[in-house]
């Protein structure tokens, strides 16, 4: 194959695209470009095992130099892409060099939304290995930790910092932050989860300012109160890394706008994957952008197939799936609970050994989504059911039977 594929972005979406091109039988040249000097690594452990010091760099590696060489993936690490020349079919790198392509895959991901406050040091975001190392160093000092943002990253860092013996407070302007994803009532259970583990929550209150320096920070809240902190972690969302495409002529609107095959709508030889991809989801009938590991992996497989086999294009039509580990809860979310109008809870999420699932529906009567806690079997049932368009009542009955069987003595 005389073609060259340039993959821009060396996190999980980019790495999996490059690897999948080979497994799909693509025999041409593959160049993987990454802005970080480190070899590619996996992101989910950064807020958990890596931050806690339990896992090494080697444990979170996605691709070694040897593995890349073995399948003929050229690595260009430590040099960011500066712009994309669509007409000239070139990726221009920050060092002035260029790489010609027959197909370009944009996998530049998303960046943590920066902290809008003025403290000189001690304020962290968590998106990269360098971020995690810097935060880990600060967490070694026994001073209180304030986490701004009670979403998944904030909650995971809170659980990790608490396990390291730190006094932790989580602040968020929403009264039940995860409620954005799972609904208010189930969101309240996540609030209780923090409280049960001795982490303070200040939800329904915003942050006015963060002042001071590492070890001696003051967080001023909108209710007039103050929190003293040694370290502040900011987890207030992410923004797609699409700024470098501003002059490319591609349609960019909160991500690279693509068709159902993950091809840029205005350039058939440019594809996007992962967090920077905004594509037309045939199942939902609208363009969506999804910031989850599973979507990165699944979109990579679709794009690799479509580049290797352009005569039989595949649509990217996934059932959403995300997981989060917080304290003693393994949380798995499937489908779209956020659009539902009612839900039912099966099992128990308040006991000493919680295991249960919230399942969601709307006026259609179909299963729309589910949140499972410490119950992988229920998650599997619900994931299949959402994909098949199964009825909500049937799934609830199935989970009731599963729950009863699990509770019976062996």
TrEMBL record:
Its cofactor is FAD. InterPro entries: FAD-oxidoreductase/Apoptosis, FAD/NAD-bd_sf, FAD/NAD-binding_dom, FAD/NAD-linked_Rdtase_dimer_sf, Reductase_C. SUPFAM superfamilies: FAD/NAD(P)-binding domain (SSF51905), FAD/NAD-linked reductases, dimerisation (C-terminal) domain (SSF55424). GO terms for molecular function: oxidoreductase activity, acting on NAD(P)H. The keyword Phosphoprotein does not apply. Residues 321-394 form the Reductase C-terminal domain. Keywords: FAD, Flavoprotein, Oxidoreductase. GO terms for cellular component: cytoplasm. Residues 4-300 form the FAD/NAD(P)-binding domain. It comes from the Bacteria. This is Ferredoxin reductase. It comes from Terrabacter sp. (strain DBF63). The gene is ORF8.
């Amino acid at each position: 194959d005389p073609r060259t594929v340039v993959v821009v972005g060396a996190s999980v979406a980019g790495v999996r695209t490059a690897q999948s091109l080979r497994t799909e039988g693509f025999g041409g040249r593959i160049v993987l470009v990454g802005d970080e000097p480190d070899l590619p690594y996996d992101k989910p452990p950064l807020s958990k095992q890596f931050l806690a010091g339990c896992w090494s760099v080697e444990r979170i590696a996605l691709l070694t130099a040897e593995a890349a060489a073995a399948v003929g993936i050229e690595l260009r690490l430590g040099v960011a892409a500066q712009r994309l020349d669509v007409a000239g079919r070139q990726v221009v790198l920050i060092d002035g060099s260029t790489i010609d392509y027959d197909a370009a895959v944009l996998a530049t991901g998303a960046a943590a939304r920066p902290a809008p406050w003025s403290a000189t040091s001690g304020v962290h975001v968590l998106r990269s290995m360098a971020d995690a190392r810097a935060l880990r160093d600060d967490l070694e000092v026994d001073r209180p930790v304030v986490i701004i943002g009670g979403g998944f990253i904030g909650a995971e860092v809170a659980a990790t910092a608490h396990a390291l013996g730190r006094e932790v407070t989580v602040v968020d302007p929403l009264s039940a932050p995860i409620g954005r994803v799972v609904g208010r009532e189930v969101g309240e259970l996540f609030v209780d989860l923090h409280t049960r583990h001795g982490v303070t929550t200040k939800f329904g209150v915003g942050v006015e300012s963060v002042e001071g320096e590492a070890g001696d920070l003051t967080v001023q809240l909108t209710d007039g109160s103050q929190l003293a902190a040694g370290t502040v972690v900011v987890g207030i969302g992410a923004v797609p890394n699409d700024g470098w495409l501003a002059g490319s002529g591609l349609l960019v609107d909160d991500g690279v706008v693509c068709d159902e095959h993950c091809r840029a709508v205005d350039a058939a030889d440019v594809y996007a994957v992962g967090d920077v991809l905004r594509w037309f989801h045939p199942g939902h009938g609208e363009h969506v952008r999804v910031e989850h590991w599973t979507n990165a992996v699944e979109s990579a497989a679709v794009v690799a197939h479509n580049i290797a086999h352009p005569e039989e294009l595949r649509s990217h039509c996934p059932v959403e799936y995300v997981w989060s580990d917080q304290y003693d809860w393994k949380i798995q979310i499937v489908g779209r609970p956020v659009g539902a109008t009612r839900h039912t809870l099966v099992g128990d999420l308040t006991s000493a050994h919680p295991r249960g699932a919230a399942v969601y529906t709307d006026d259609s009567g179909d299963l729309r989504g589910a949140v499972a806690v410490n119950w992988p079997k229920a998650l599997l049932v619900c994931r299949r059911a959402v994909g098949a368009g199964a009825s909500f009542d049937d799934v609830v009955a199935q989970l009731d039977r599963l729950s009863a069987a699990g509770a019976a003595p062996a």
